[in-house]
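Sample log: FAD dependent oxidoreductase.
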Amino acid sequence: MHNIAVIGAGMAGCTLARRLVDAGRRVHVFDKGRAAGGRMATRVAGRLRFDHGAQFMSVRGDAMRARLPEWQQAGVLARWPQAAVGDSERWVAVPGMNALAPRMLWGAEFSAQTLIHTLGADRFGWWLAEESGTLPDCFDAVLVTLPAPQAVTLFERSTGAGLARFIDAMRQIRYAPCWTLMLSLSERLDVADCLRFPAGGALNWAARDSGKPQRDASRECWVVHADPLWSRQHLECEPEQIEALLTEAFAAAVGRAVVPVQRCAHRWRYARVVDALGQPCLWDADARVGYASDGCLGERIEDAFDSANALADRVLEAGANRDLPWVHAAEQHVHLR
Ligand SMILES: Cc1cc2nc3c(=O)[nH]c(=O)nc-3n(C[C@H](O)[C@H](O)[C@H](O)COP(=O)(O)OP(=O)(O)OC[C@H]3O[C@@H](n4cnc5c(N)ncnc54)[C@H](O)[C@@H]3O)c2cc1C
């Protein structure tokens, strides 16, 4: 298997790209977003930047721990001491959470703003299509790394052996939503950099984003995450209403009036995994289609990383098999549908 498509450029997609490029494969990554990173996201609003998705990485396993020195030396990862809990360190990408992804994609081809609408397999391999038409390439394998409900939608529109079985498995994966408030304030708040809130209220977490390493500390910027249940109850509200409600809840939590210079709300429909699949990845060696994401293993960035590594292992094992019917078409890189 030489020519591989990866759909989604979050931690799972970037990990797959890194592993497969390092193993000598030609990898093309597609993402609907403007940039790579997925839920490891950084919103730029004028001169302000906010990590409005994942806040930090906690590292429990050896596989991810082994990558930390490389990312630190490359200047894209740093410790965030203010968020540490006991001995458990927290890491952030610098200068924003989305900074790790481009580094991981080195050597892969990357197409941003490319929403994959349909995929299918024919005798030349896998083809991918946007709503406007089929992309001009075919692939020996396709690896999907979207949040499970979005992957189910994609697979339901698609044709190809193995997809129906994947849909059944992926339907078990469930996510909690999260409304996020990004706030820039004119004055520094006299509170700790990270605030955790008990379940049952509007808030789940708040962090001084401008206090993270290599951020602009001259500005007082906060990211506030709503409680998962509260987010679900307010899922279809207008962002302006959420901005007002969460600003009020945050002011109550810090015990003083909060006057935003700028504020903005973002809704994550699929934020944190609450029911994971419980197996590292899905892979159909005959159909050459795979699925990896945090949804396979848990709610953290490292779960997405571990899932993608498991899938990369499967793909590379399968690639060791020399009897590959699609090699000829893949070498031509021509899609003759
Ligand atoms: C608010 C919030 C806070 C979080 N906090 C933390 C935290 O502090 N620590 C932690 O470890 N984890 C945290 N997480 C979870 C963490 O972000 C995820 O576990 C991890 O980033 C998931 O990576 P992934 O690659 O599986 O999925 P994603 O990052 O979601 O990547 C999937 C990609 O697929 C793309 N995509 C979707 N549909 C299509 C399509 N049809 N065609 C092309 N591309 C498509 C998306 O644009 C996206 O880039 C948080 C998440 C959120 C939302």
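Observation: Residues 301-319 form the longest helix (19 residues).
Observation: The first strand starts at residue 3 and ends at 7.
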